[in-house]
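Okay, can you check this protein?
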Amino acid sequence: MVETRDTDLDRLMGHLKERDVAYTALQGVASSYLAQIQEAARVVSSGGPDRFIKPFHITVDASTSPWAATSFNWMTMEVNTASLMVDEN
């Protein structure tokens, strides 16, 4: 009975050690991802001239859409509604 209990305790302690090792590895991965996300946010918010993510507008061609000259600013998420033209036909 005592031997069975000792065996069970050893097995459970082994599982706890494995869990602690896995948890430590997970913390390392999570902190790495957090650093990457923070760097990406810094790059996006800097808006430098050499960055591919910066404020820009998309203009819809008047010949292909009734929403001619509509523009959308991706940084502010605003639609320029003053330039909307609706076809009355």
Remarks:
- The longest strand covers residues 57-59.
